[in-house]
């Protein structure tokens, strides 16, 4: 029986959660969740100069917004440094590592000589096979004994069979002379101790896999399944950077993209399953497999992102969408909805969400319920409120006072008054939009009237007909 799948996301807390990191976390989450496995989170905070609690908090916020829940406690790599050092000494005891007393000057001289001789400047320590009785009483590093001949093969689920010639790899330092472990050792020890079965990460780590695989071998540990995914590029095909726009996950929340749409879009960014384009996370979990990941870098396409988000806005549960809207307002530094606005928004969401791709678009369409009287129409809308139109609105208001407040009851009243004045309903709609929302482009007149209610509708029409 195969062991349960365990994946992990292991960001460095030196800044915000990059969109590429968000997709890596998503792929790990989908792979584990779709197989009833575990998705773990480790913060690789060994770089004490650059790691900050603020960056860690930003990463956790970004993952939470994306809806990626992790199992168990967040692991701090720095807190496990004693365990990493313990493994380095265990390698020493096993004979798969050795103490190296070479100085920086000696190493530099060795490499210069190799280069001068036209050879690949891989440092070969004279201490590799030295008799321990010859060891001086001096500072030393612990180096892993890398194989000097043959090849190291990485069987990668995305990149295929990757072969590295062992002669190009030096005896990697695993423990520095001050007793601190190197990152390459810490990663392997953590992944082993956390029971990670699949390492799914960016292909910028592919070269690290050969060295890390040697650590697994040196300890006699099971090597995980490797899957190195291509990076995300901007629309111009160049590595994604600030010049392309937002690069941090939290920026996308503040720009008003719904999380479900973002998850769907990022899942499809570099991965495919037949012609599936729009799907829920539950569907993605069932479909997602490493074989569907392409080798070429994916390009960020904002138009496609918006289109995907539009589908998810329309599919969303109203209560969940309202909750996420409030989260967007907080992230964007905009005022929260008042109780009255929230109640109105709840009634308007069924028709507003079907034509919006982002929360700013949704709010723009909801302007009619956000404004308060007296409404000052935009210049273009004000043009529709001429003397004739105001007169028509004035004659309309008494008829609305006692009408049943349903579309079926309101429709004959509005079309009737348009017919009485010899105009089509389109001609009546323009002053109605101006009076109810102060704009030329709004949701349906009937939808607006039903949401804001009889009293507010009559009051707004009365204001406009003065």
UniProtKB/TrEMBL annotation:
<comment type="function">
    <text>Catalyzes the attachment of glutamate to tRNA(Glu) in a two-step reaction: glutamate is first activated by ATP to form Glu-AMP and then transferred to the acceptor end of tRNA(Glu).</text>
</comment>
<comment type="subunit">
    <text>Monomer.</text>
</comment>
<dbReference type="InterPro" id="IPR000924">
    <property type="entry name" value="Glu/Gln-tRNA-synth"/>
</dbReference>
<protein>
    <recommendedName>
        <fullName>Glutamate--tRNA ligase</fullName>
        <ecNumber>6.1.1.17</ecNumber>
    </recommendedName>
</protein>
<dbReference type="Pfam" id="PF00749">
    <property type="entry name" value="tRNA-synt_1c"/>
</dbReference>
<keyword id="KW-0547">Nucleotide-binding</keyword>
<comment type="similarity">
    <text>Belongs to the class-I aminoacyl-tRNA synthetase family. Glutamate--tRNA ligase type 1 subfamily.</text>
</comment>
<dbReference type="InterPro" id="IPR014729">
    <property type="entry name" value="Rossmann-like_a/b/a_fold"/>
</dbReference>
<dbReference type="GO" id="GO:0004818">
    <property type="term" value="F:glutamate-tRNA ligase activity"/>
</dbReference>
<keyword id="KW-0648">Protein biosynthesis</keyword>
<feature type="short sequence motif" description="'HIGH' region">
    <location>
        <begin position="11"/>
        <end position="21"/>
    </location>
</feature>
<keyword id="KW-0436">Ligase</keyword>
<feature type="domain" description="Aminoacyl-tRNA synthetase class I anticodon-binding">
    <location>
        <begin position="332"/>
        <end position="464"/>
    </location>
</feature>
<dbReference type="InterPro" id="IPR004527">
    <property type="entry name" value="Glu-tRNA-ligase_bac/mito"/>
</dbReference>
<dbReference type="InterPro" id="IPR033910">
    <property type="entry name" value="GluRS_core"/>
</dbReference>
<feature type="short sequence motif" description="'KMSKS' region">
    <location>
        <begin position="239"/>
        <end position="243"/>
    </location>
</feature>
<dbReference type="Pfam" id="PF19269">
    <property type="entry name" value="Anticodon_2"/>
</dbReference>
<keyword id="KW-0963">Cytoplasm</keyword>
<feature type="domain" description="Glutamyl/glutaminyl-tRNA synthetase class Ib catalytic">
    <location>
        <begin position="5"/>
        <end position="306"/>
    </location>
</feature>
<keyword id="KW-0030">Aminoacyl-tRNA synthetase</keyword>
<feature type="binding site">
    <location>
        <position position="242"/>
    </location>
    <ligand>
        <name>ATP</name>
    </ligand>
</feature>
<dbReference type="InterPro" id="IPR001412">
    <property type="entry name" value="aa-tRNA-synth_I_CS"/>
</dbReference>
<dbReference type="InterPro" id="IPR049940">
    <property type="entry name" value="GluQ/Sye"/>
</dbReference>
<keyword id="KW-0067">ATP-binding</keyword>
<dbReference type="InterPro" id="IPR045462">
    <property type="entry name" value="aa-tRNA-synth_I_cd-bd"/>
</dbReference>
<dbReference type="InterPro" id="IPR020751">
    <property type="entry name" value="aa-tRNA-synth_I_codon-bd_sub2"/>
</dbReference>
<dbReference type="InterPro" id="IPR020058">
    <property type="entry name" value="Glu/Gln-tRNA-synth_Ib_cat-dom"/>
</dbReference>
<dbReference type="InterPro" id="IPR008925">
    <property type="entry name" value="aa_tRNA-synth_I_cd-bd_sf"/>
</dbReference>
């Amino acid at each position: 029986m195969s062991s349960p799948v365990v994946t992990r996301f292991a960001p460095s807390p030196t800044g915000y959660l990059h969109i590429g990191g968000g997709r890596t976390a998503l792929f790990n989450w989908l792979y584990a969740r779709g197989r009833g496995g575990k998705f773990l989170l480790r913060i690789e905070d060994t770089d004490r100069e650059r790691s900050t609690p603020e960056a860690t908090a930003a990463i956790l916020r970004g993952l939470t917004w994306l809806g990626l829940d992790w199992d168990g406690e967040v692991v701090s790599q720095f807190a496990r440094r004693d365990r990493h050092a313990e493994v380095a000494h265990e390698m020493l005891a096993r004979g798969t590592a050795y103490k190296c007393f070479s100085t920086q000057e000696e190493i530099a001289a060795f490499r210069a000589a190799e280069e001068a001789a036209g050879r690949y400047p891989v440092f070969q320590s004279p201490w590799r096979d030295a008799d321990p009785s010859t060891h001086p009483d001096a500072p030393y590093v612990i180096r892993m004994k890398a194989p000097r001949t043959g090849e190291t093969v990485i069987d990668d689920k995305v990149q295929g069979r990757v072969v590295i010639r062992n002669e190009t790899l030096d005896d990697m330092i695993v423990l520095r002379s001050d007793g601190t472990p190197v990152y390459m050792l810490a990663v392997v020890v953590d992944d082993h101790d956390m029971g990670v079965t699949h390492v799914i990460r960016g292909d910028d780590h592919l070269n690290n896999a050969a060295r890390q695989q040697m650590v697994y071998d040196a300890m006699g540990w099971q090597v995980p399944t490797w899957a190195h995914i291509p990076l995300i590029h901007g629309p111009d095909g160049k590595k994604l950077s600030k010049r392309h726009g937002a690069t941090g996950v939290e920026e996308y929340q503040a720009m008003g993209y719904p999380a479900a749409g973002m998850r769907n879009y990022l899942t499809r960014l570099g991965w495919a399953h037949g012609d599936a384009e729009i799907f829920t996370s539950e569907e993605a979990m069932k479909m997602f497999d490493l074989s569907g990941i392409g080798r070429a870098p994916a390009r960020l396409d904002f138009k496609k992102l918006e289109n995907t988000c539009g589908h998810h806005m329309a599919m969303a549960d109203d209560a969940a969408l309202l909750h996420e809207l409030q989260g967007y307002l907080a992230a964007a530094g905009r005022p929260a909805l008042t109780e009255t606005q929230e109640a109105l928004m709840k009634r308007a969401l069924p028709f507003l969400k079907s034509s919006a791709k982002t929360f700013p678009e949704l709010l723009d369409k909801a302007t009619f319920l956000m404004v308060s009287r007296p409404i000052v129409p935009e210049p273009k809308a004000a043009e529709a409120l001429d003397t004739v139109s105001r007169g028509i609105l004035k004659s309309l208001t008494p008829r609305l006072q006692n009408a049943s407040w349903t579309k079926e009851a309101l429709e004959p009243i509005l079309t009737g008054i348009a017919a009485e004045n010899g105009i089509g309903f389109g001609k009546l709609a323009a002053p109605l939009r101006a009076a109810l929302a102060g704009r030329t482009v709004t949701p349906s007149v009937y939808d607006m009237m039903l949401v804001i209610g009889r009293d507010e509708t009559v009051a707004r029409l009365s204001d406009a007909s003065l």
